Amino acid sequence: MMVSSQTFIAEHVLDAVSLKKQKHLLDVAGGEGAFACSALRRNSHLKATVLDLPEVADLANNRFEREGLTERANAVGGNMFESDLPSAPDVVSFIRVLHDHDDDRIKVLLSSAYKTLPKGGRLIVAEPMAGTRGSEAIGDAYFGMYLWAMGSGRARTVEELTEMICEAGFSKCEELRTSMPLLVRVVSAIA
């Protein structure tokens, strides 16, 4: 489900977020590269790195090759919790990643993102969030069941995520509107 829906989610995120001023995207836990590919297609000046487990990074590199993006994209195998994030990005994204993990692990990820970004670099967090107006009951029930099955994590409100992002050192935290807030909401911040 994650792989098949990632391109659909990527388009909603990229409708909300402009990457025209960024040069190098690091998509943490970026899977097979769907978000990175969508971002590269929309922004011809952009380069992208995907960080995911080694076997998943291989799948992303295969996708970049199939889509003719190897000059601008690569995937790196590693564990986002156990090593430093790759250096040189000016934007770091977590697309449907943080809600899968408990608070202590998210704090590690946000701190790592802050450390790898230059001053003025950008953070993008996109995922389903608790308290989405008009769909609280169905959204909280659906994602609660999904995360229960995963064995960790929880859907957080924009306010909870904003607080965690600011605690990691980021500023200018803001929610950016998406056309499908039940599926994905976006928070952006500056290092």
Note down, in words, how this protein is organized.
The structure is a single chain. With 191 residues, the chain is α/β, with parallel strands linked by helices. The chain contains six helices and seven strands, in the order H-E-H-E-H-E-E-H-E-H-H-E-E. The chain has a seven-stranded mixed β-sheet with strand order 3-2-1-4-5-7-6, sandwiched between helices. The protein is globular. The mean pLDDT is 89.
Overall mean pLDDT: 89
Sheet-strand content, in percent, reads: 15-25%
Number of strands: 7
What would you call the structural class?
alpha/beta
Lateral arrangement of strands in the main beta sheet? 3-2-1-4-5-7-6
Oligomer: single chain
Determine the number of helices (DSSP H or I, runs of at least 4 residues): 6
Show unreliable segments: none
Helix content: 25-40%
Tell me the overall shape.
Answer: globular
User: Between the first and last Cα atoms, what is the distance in angstroms?
Assistant: 32 Å
Q: How are helices and strands ordered from N to C?
A: HEHEHEEHEHHEE
Sheet with the most strands?
A: 7 strands, mixed
What's the Cα radius of gyration? Answer: 15 Å
